[in-house]
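Action item from last week, closing it out:
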Amino acid sequence: MSHAWVNRQAKNRKAREAPSGALEAAQAVQVALETPPTVTMEELRPQPDQDSTIVGRLQPISEPSLKAEDLRSLTQPTRSLLQAGRVFAVHQVEGQRRHARISLDAEDERLYLHALKEHTLPLGAATLQVSEIVPPSPPCMVFLDLSWPGCAPRRVHIHLSPNTPRGRQFMLLCTGQCGPSYRDTRLFEVWTDGKMRGCVWGGDYESNDGDGPSVLVPELGVSEYQRSCCAGDVFMDPDAWGRDDQLEFGHFGILTRDWVGCVAWPLVYGKVVEGLHVVAEAAQHSDITEVTVVDCGVVL
């Protein structure tokens, strides 16, 4: 007899001696595989998406309220939120809800409210109302960030005072509370005195070329304005371009240097207190229409 035949016989004998329980288990497995699974009505009902459930749980805490005093006192939790870019002011008019980012300057510790935008808040953002932190009218400090090809954005600080229609309009166009803002508008003209370029013009949020009236506040010329021709003055000249109706245009001019012997004294409602050199450099740019207000807002 060969060894192979002996081994086959031993295997057959072991198979015949296998416990009946093992054979029954194997048969049960085979039946289960051949039988279609049963599904209950509960299992057929749509189940909530796991991700949306998580978002739903976060939503109640996604916009914790922040108090104006917490912002001004710069508590450590508030400072951490500011550094993470998660502090916003909310402004809602006629069902339209917009948000303004609030940033903290790491060098001078000043708070800046940027112009309102329509965008989605990040999860965990802290909010407060624009009306809680922005004054209803000047005096106040605002800012314009100017940029042109080859120049990174640089900030210009302007103090608006006293409370005049033009001052109120300038502030509203820095915050965007009435809809439009100075953001993405261009400077459109430079005035020269001889070879010096001493005054820039901007503020036309309607047509961006100086032809749009750009009026938010009525009767812009009806007020007592300071009259001056000094470097840094933010003004409107009623004799601009020789047009009487220019008095009711909402554009602004900024003097980059003193104008000695000025005849048509401007109507001044603001003063550049920081960044006048930025305006002067913008005035020397070869194409003034390339100078853009890339951001604006209020210094809190």
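Closing note: The radius of gyration is 35 Å.
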